[in-house]
Amino acid sequence: MGKRHLTTISSLLIALALFSGCSENNSTNTVSTPADLTRDEVCMLDGMILLDHPGPKGQVIFKNNEQHFFCDTKGLISTLYDQSYKMKIKQAFVQDFGARKWGSYNDNWIDVKQAFFVMDSSQFGAMGPTLATFSSRSDAEIFIKEFGGSVLAFDELSEEKFEAYQKRIRQQLRDAIGNISTTNEAAAHQHN
Question: 183 vs 51, 149, 176, CA distance in Å?
């Protein structure tokens, strides 16, 4: 075989390798379409039926094209930060709650990376306090005027800020349980 043939074959092999690498990357980088909610959709983490609970939901599409739902945005964000899932996720979505009622079930999916999150509002989701999600900061600020909280864009919602939020929620729950226990003990002493 001549030098010219080897050069041609080498060029073809390099082009084939580059082409297959590009097509492989395209399959994981293509934009996916979120699925609409149905009565059959359950939470990936706890099996709760999504339509039985208020508040924003989450959805992930893994690189193997499996789609899974979350009954609450906190579960979705926890999964995005979970090292065992992080590299397997192709795309994630949350619901846009701009111009809609809290208990409505319209899909209105938006890419999680484009969302604005309201934390510490008075509105509860499927698992108690939740992150309300919006496609625009102005919609999030309108929501805050009525229900309180603060707004963060996705890139501002660091793992550390999310964990601090989760700790605040757990402490509020412990405080509420302590207050209920104290109230129940006081009521029991009054009846004796």
Answer: 34, 28, 11
Domain that holds residue 140: 32-184
Rounded CA-CA distance 56/129 in Å is 11
Q: What's the length of the chain?
A: 192
Q: How many domains does the chain have?
A: 1
Tokens standing for residue 65: 């094209």
Which tens digit of pLDDT belongs to each residue from 91-139? 999 999 996 778 777 788 999 999 999 999 999 988 889 999 999 999 9
Q: How far apart are CA 62 and CA 90, in angstroms?
A: 5
Is residue 77 situated within a structural domain? Answer: yes
What does the pLDDT look like over 117-129, one tens digit per residue? 999 999 998 888 9
* Phi-psi region at 128: left, alpha or beta (left = phi > 0; alpha = psi -120 to 50): left
Query: In this structure, is residue 192 part of a structural domain?
Result: no
User: For 33-49, what is the mean pLDDT?
Assistant: 88
Helix (H) or strand (E) holding 185: helix 159-191
What is the reported pTM? 0.74
Give domain status of residue 169, yes or no: yes
Residue 136 inside a domain? The answer is: yes
